[in-house]
Amino acid sequence: MGKLSAGDRAPAFDLASDLGKNVKLSDFKGQSLVLYFYPRDNTPGCTREAQAFTKLLPAFKKAGADVVGVSRDSLASHGKFRDALKLKVALLSDPDLVAHKAYGAYGAKTMYGKKTMGVIRSTFLIGKDSRIVRVWGSVKVDGHAEAVLEALKT
Predict the structure, then answer these.
(1) Going from the N-terminus, what domains does the chain have, and what CATH number goes with each?
(2) Sorting pLDDT into bands at 50, 70 and 90, what band is 32?
(3) Which residues are known catalytic residues?
(4) Spatial contact of 122 and 135, defined as CB atoms under 8 Å apart
């Protein structure tokens, strides 16, 4: 799958969540969705990102969107991460990287000057019609949730 861009249909997904049920793209029909991919539970950047989205969740909901995080971590890991930080965003488990690859959130990246394969921190704003509204690739965590909220409001 190549890079997704605004106007593309969002790839369908059906992933287990920390809420005890599977979550699918179709669950969000008629509302906007912020789908963010992050490398790993309980790491500094991922923790700050999850906390920022949790803090702004009421504003996202008021603007007509839900927020969902996706990583390769297990549901057990997600549960500990959620409980330790009192996270309010649903966390989806994608151990086989199916959704990651469909959204282009896994691939070659450069870390500390070395090329590696890994999760590319990415966020997708998906509209009520299940089309991509905006894509943020290689996200820098600080200020990101606020930038996504601003984009949603405009």
Answers:
(1) 31-153 (3.40.30.10)
(2) very high
(3) 46
(4) yes
CA 81, 83, 60 angle in degrees (round to 5)?
85
Nearest CA among 45, 21, 14, 12 for reference residue 140: 45
Nearest alpha-carbon partner for 31 in 70, 68, 61, 55: 61
Residue closest to 75 by CA, chosen among 87, 90, 85? 90
Rounded to whole angstroms, what are the CA distances from 121 to 29, 36, 51, 100, 124? 24, 8, 15, 10, 11
Note the pLDDT tens digit of each residue in 118-148.
999 999 999 999 999 999 998 999 999 999 9
- In whole angstroms, how large is the CA radius of gyration of the chain? 14
- 66 forms beta bridges with 33
Tallying the residues shown for the chain, one arrives at: 154
